[in-house]
Amino acid sequence: MPHASEHRVVGLKRISGGSSRETYAFELEWIEGGEKRRRPMIGRRDPTGGLLKSDREREFKVIDAMHRAGLKVPEPLFLELDASVMDRPFFIMERAAGQTGMGAFPAAEAESTRIKVAEDFISELVRLQSLDYREYGLEILGAPKNLEEPARIQTAHWNGLYESDRMGEHYPILTAAFAWLKANPVVSDRIVIVHGDYRSGNYLYDENGIIAMLDWEMAHLGDPMEDLGWASMLFWGRDEFAGGLLEREEFYHLYEDKSGHPIDRKRLFFYQVLGNAKMAVICLTGIRDFVERRTSDAVMPFLELLLPQLLGDLASQLRLV
Amino acid sequence: MLRPTLNELISGMQRTIIEALMPELTSPYAQNQAISAIGMLTHAAAVLDAAPAYDAAEIKDLRATFGAIKRLGDKHLSKKSGLRGALARATRASVRTPPERRALEAAMAEFATAVALGRADERVARHIRGYIGRHLERSRILLGGTLPSA
Lengths: 321, 150
Description:
Largest sheet of chain A: 5 strands, antiparallel
Oligomer: heterodimer
Strand order of the largest sheet of chain A: 1-2-3-5-4
Number of domains of chain B: 2
Strand content of chain B: under 5%
């Protein structure tokens, strides 16, 4: 803001959600061209510990690219990597309006809202997958060398975290899941930008649909079925409603209609297995960071309560029950 | 008996948070954390009561499952599956006092992997599936809950 002066932070308060970063809401006031300006902002600071180990510069660049591409994301404004300014690196973005939930789209919402959100949810995913990552400087996300790599890279990444974060415990179903993923790798049909956490609960919405997709810290390059598999996992759904938005088959058909790409059910299934395993590992990472005192977030120990459902879903998928 | 008991202490901590701390908290984030801490204490009280029985049931079931597989005989464990070694390790862990839970679970992970990959004999797989079903049911009973709103 080269022509701005007298910046003032008003009403700073920490807010819940976005457990991979400390998140703060505030109003920024400043003088520009002799006029007083005011804008609602969100500050995201690196945590001391938590669910994910991710790079804030990378996240900022991804949101910036998505904003330039015209996707529904908050406008990213400032990135500060110098930890001496606020103890840890942080970035600031526009505070978008709207509401969010933790998981499945709320059953209590009006049907018209649900349909609009579902349409936007699929449309935004299709738009994301249609972008050329090179055009937006997102080679920094690490392009897979061939179409076989995405499945192998993701499996190896989450299996590695499982091994480091299980604290010496054995989770037979999870061990079996990673062995199955290694033994049954799938081959992508193209390389796209993957959000990495594309699901209900990670968007702001109102009665007109989605306002902004949030939480881009796990973005990478990979298989388009990865986000679709993650978004349609039973875990984020409600009964037969994928993400609480649409009946699962309707959800898939809408994606096929909008993208023009038929869904490869084998690849979709692979990424749903990977998704359950990944979410279970995210829980183990949060529990480990709580146990080893890297975070005091009181939500972390409750992640243990999510494991029976995730492991139960995996056991069903792998015919272990 | 020492008073207050552990459960009475936990209940007291919850009251302290609700009655003394929460009225002083103005930040919604801090209030949410306090609510989560109360939930954590509720969970701790439940686990304190139920965890010993859960652990005992797990170990008993693992030993019984491996015992049943052993009784099937080696012909149901092909050499190339590597399951004979896993069964030997499980058998050794079973007879230790106390039984080595982690070693039993490590052996179960090898068997579950073989079942998932279709490399286990069907009679062995039936025992493994039976254990996993019971294990999941016990876990749901012990932990069956959801995240506190935050």
